[in-house]
Amino acid sequence: MTAQNLTTVEVRMLRAESRKRALQDSWTLWKRNPVTIAGTLIILSLILIAMVAPWLATHDPFDQILADRLFPPSLDYWFGTDNLGRDIYSRVIHGSRLTLMIAFVVALISGPIGLVVGVLSGYLGGMVDEVLMRLSDIFLAFPKLILAIAFAAALEPGLTNAIIAISIANWPSYARLVRAETLAVRNSDYIDAVRILGAGHLRIMIYHLTPMCLSTLIVRVSLDMGTIILIAAGLGFLGLGAQPPAPEWGLMVSDGRNYLVDQWWVSTIPGIAILVVVLGFNLVGDGLRDILDPHQRQS
Amino acid sequence: MTETVPSLIPKSEPIDYSSTNNESQPLLTIRDLRVHFYTLRGTVYALEGVNLDVQKEETMGIVGETGCGKSITARAVLRLIDPPGKIVSGTVEFDGQELLNLHPKEMRRIRGKRISMIMQEPRMSLNPVIRVGNQVAETLLIHESDLSPSAARKKAEEMLQSVGIPDAGKMSKRYPHELSGGMAQRVMIAMMLVTRPKLLIADEPTSALDVTIQAQIIDLMNDLVHELQSSVMMISHDLGVVAETCDRVAVMYAGSVVEQGRVEDVLHNPRHPYTKGLLRTLPDNASENEDLYSIKGNVPSLFMPQQQCRFAPRCEFSQERCFQEIPGSYQVGNNHSAACFLHENGI
Hints:
Chain A has 299 residues and is an all-alpha fold. Chain A has helices at residues 8-32, 34-51, 53-56, 88-124, 126-140, 144-154, 159-186, 189-196, 201-237, 249-255, 265-292, 294-298. Chain B has a domain at 28-114 and 195-343: Rossmann fold (3-Layer(aba) Sandwich), CATH 3.40.50. In chain B, strands 6-7-8-3-9-10-12-11 form an 8-stranded mixed sheet, with helices on both faces. Chain B has a 4-stranded antiparallel sheet with strand order 2-1-4-5, with helices on one face. At the A-B interface, helix 8 and helix 9 of A face helix 2, helix 3 and helix 6 of B.
């Protein structure tokens, strides 16, 4: 009742205050954990590098100077050159764009598929649930990487098909998650209330269940980014993902494997790039879990 | 050989609900409604032949203890009995239309538009992530497809104003968790009445509220309902609320209506032993030194189909017959009936 006597401005100020406090809490939790800070910095710099890649690169990533084949790291070629005389530093920098692109497109494809399947399955139940969940069980029975390899091999090898393959391997775990969330919300009183109002199934699923599942799904997808990047690199390494001459990190590791003993940098440098980025995503994932955990918040 | 002495008082026949009475057509007519729940532990015979009328512009109270089937009756009217429950038989006639064999699509057009229901827990019944104004507007959008969202929001605001929400423009942008229980119930009422339904089912609308707010909500509901000329089916276990608001009342026990009549008649001159017992349990009716009265025994298990008077085991007046037959409903006064063999002779 007291709330009515406050003016909108006051309410807005109070709300801003509580928002500020929530942010401060998150900030403290973030600050407390140096590992999370490291992860965040890695991801931020990855995004930054991807944005300004053409300006950071010292050479054209596709330019082959056969006279300069397999040069070790030097002042001219910071990370050395590969077997076709391309500058590895420039290729790694440009590769960050590909890596980010793959991760986001896969998230954008498999997230919504998981959302739709999960909500349908959880809300409709019965036969629909049974069929969809057994289907996702079949997918979940295989390791994601193996499944992605199988699909990528069945489709034509290439970047687009690799993205499709990873998405196919990825959606079932999201569907599971969303289904669980839907089941928790489905029997709540407010869903009952909109049924009493005469809402149809479609309206309930779109306007009332989907928004409830969204936040959980977004967190989960962002935690999965590291895995997605790793699988994409794996497909690239096996020749099932990005095709030459694309500067894809997995592909670059594969290119250098014949020279591993004498010209270690050809494979190792892009390998380190993969390692650092995946590590960054995983560290942020762990940190995010702590920050979002209400038990941690109280202290 | 014993000879049956013909009784001097003519035996009154049980009320034959199948014949349509010629009086003014009631808005809602429930006949022999049976709802069973097929659970793994066995069948629950939750409703065993409920007969009920709600007249136009009347407030009909339904009282009874927890689990007697009040809410199930209400949900059955809206056909919102979820599996494992099922409406086994009976008829529910609303405004001359049989609801139980309507196509689900047509049924959806009735829900919220012509029959609405206010629920117990107002705050749990509002979607936590949708602004309350939009939730009221949603009712309109569901039923009036040609209405634009902004027009619906405007109408919703007006409705919020008329349920006594101050500063409706700003309040409609609030989320449910920012409202008090009373405010939330007002929003709920707005949501359910914005389409001007002919019948409002109120399932214990005040039991989750503060005593001080209860009266306000009840008054508000009555005012709106009179304005809309709607009927109300008021489910409650609070006899005080029923006495104050209802025109007629039906008393339910273990899945059927045991007594039905005008509120004055039923509460001041109860005829069914269960109603009598129920009224005796009220603390107001006990003298100071006396222990509170309680009806002996327990509510019968609903896992058995009804084959006898379900109240008989607890009844002071039960006869052998009560354990063998199901009593019909007997007229015991003007517009007053009780389902008990005691009143077979119409006393």
